[in-house]
Amino acid sequence: MSDSFRRRLRALPDFPEDLPAFDPAGAPADPQQLFRDWLDEALAAGVRQPHAFSLATADAAGNLSSRMLILKNLDDSGWHFATARSSRKGRELAANPRAAMNFYWAEQGRQIRVAGAVVLLSDDASARDWAERPSAGGSANPDWQLYALQPVEIEFWQADPGRRHIRHRYDL
Ligand SMILES: Cc1cc2nc3c(=O)[nH]c(=O)nc-3n(C[C@H](O)[C@H](O)[C@H](O)COP(=O)(O)O)c2cc1C
Hints:
- The chain is α+β, with helices and mostly antiparallel strands.
- The protein has one domain (14-171): Electron Transport, Fmn-binding Protein, Chain A (Pnp Oxidase, Chain A, Roll).
- It is 24% helix and 37% strand.
- The protein contains four helices and eight strands.
- It has helices spanning 2-11, 31-44, 88-95, 123-131, and strands at residues 52-58, 64-70, 73-75, 78-84, 98-105, 110-120, 144-158, 166-171.
- Strands 1, 2, 3, 4, 5, 6, 7 and 8 form an eight-stranded antiparallel β-sheet that branches.
- The radius of gyration is 18 Å and the shape is globular.
- The termini are far apart.
- Bound molecules: flavin mononucleotide.
- Residues 49, 52, 65, 67-70, 81-83, 87-89 line the site of flavin mononucleotide.
- This is Phenazine biosynthesis protein PhzG.
- Keywords: Flavoprotein, FMN, Oxidoreductase.
- FMN binds at residues 67-72, 88-89, 111.
- One of its GO terms (biological process) is pyridoxine biosynthetic process.
């Protein structure tokens, strides 16, 4: 039984044959610019929810957890996401303000990982984010928090059909 499951997993297709080109030598010096370029290409390629990413956090003892979130913005303060401060991730970020993001776009064989420190953005910005949610309907939520991840490392990864996968790393 478990052997047949193992075989089924082994037989699943991996990356599509038709993958985009990526030459790190031509990549912009600013990783946020490369992310914007890749996001445009993902949307043009029909990737659904390219702004969704997995966020990994840890509590003070180092116990890890992860979940999917939506990227809200990129600016000089960092990579923005929003959640409830009282949630598990909110409590973990209060105890240990560091996190790792991972974006994966299967149709293009692209992965982007971003890790660093997490800071709280302003009450005004958090309230605006809450108000812009489709279900907010004029309500307020004092528990809602906009955060910014300030990267110390970012890696763009491009799958290659010949398995010479390409990595482009920024140390900040
Ligand atoms: C694609 C996707 C996007 C999501 N976006 C958010 C988000 O932006 N903010 C949020 O708080 N939860 C979002 N969620 C729900 C979280 O994954 C998670 O279930 C919830 O925030 C509770 O996480 P926690 O218990 O680890 O704190 C999203 C889930 C999915 C699948």
